[in-house]
Amino acid sequence: MKSLRLFLILLILAMPIMLAAQDELSDEAASALGCGIMIVWLVLAVVWLGLSIWAAIWINKDAKRRGYDKAGLFVTLAIIGIFFGFWWIIWIIYLISRPKNGQGGAAVPAAETPTTPPPPPPPAQQPPSEG
Q1: CA distance 63 to 60
Q2: CA distance 57 to 46
Q3: Cα(6)–Cα(114) distance, rounded to whole angstroms?
Q4: Rounded to an integer, what distance in angstroms lies between the CA atom of residue 66 and that of residue 73?
Q5: How many whole angstroms separate alpha carbon 29 and alpha carbon 20?
Q6: CB neighbours of 101 closer than 8 A, spacing ≥ 6?
Q7: How far is CA 33 from the centre of its chain?
Q8: What is the pTM for the complete model shown?
Q9: Nearest Cα to 56, choosing from 90, 85, 84?
Q10: DSSP labels, the chain
Q11: Between 71-84 and 87-97, two packed helices, what is the crossing angle to 10 degrees?
Q12: Distance between CA atoms of 107 and 115, rounded to whole angstroms?
């Protein structure tokens, strides 16, 4: 699978050179085609990088909100995964293993419930007056 991906990448990158070698395509057209392909690759790389950074930030925020004690591990793996291209696998593993409804391994502070003030003391009773 990895070799197929590498072959496809090299094929796409080498296509302008192969087209320029043919007599049917002028040098200017081959250069324009090469620039166009490189711009597409650059846009895809920026989108890929943006998605991977977003995933790492989202994992961090979600894990902290849920009180998950392994937040640092998943964020570290996602950041490492940015450079090697497997951040999306880490994201899927996190989505499967994250605690449901904030029930992580770390202690989650309970939400403070509003307390009602104690009832006022009963009024002092006056002794019956004689008269």
Answers
A1: 5
A2: 16
A3: 60
A4: 15
A5: 8
A6: 66
A7: 34
A8: 0.52
A9: 90
A10: -HHHHHHHHHHHHHHHHHHHHSTTS-HHHHHHHHHHHHHHHHHHHHHHHHHHHHHHHHHHHHHHHHT-TTHHHHHHHHHHHHHHT-HHHHHHHHHHHSPGGG--SSPPPPPPPPPPPPPPPPPPPPPPPP-
A11: 160
A12: 23
The DSSP result for 54-92, as a single string, is HHHHHHHHHHHHHT-TTHHHHHHHHHHHHHHT-HHHHHH
Instruction: Name the residue with tokens 């699978």.
Output: 1
Tokens of 56: 């790492």
Is 50 exceeded by the pLDDT of residue 107? no
Q: Which amino acid is at 13?
A: L
pLDDT digits (tens, 9 = 90+) for 78-89: 888 888 878 888
Q: Which two tokens stand for residue 49?
A: 């990088």
| Longest CA span, the chain | 129
Which tokens sit at 18?
Answer: 């192969």
* Segment 44-71, tens digit of pLDDT: 889 888 888 888 888 888 888 888 888 8
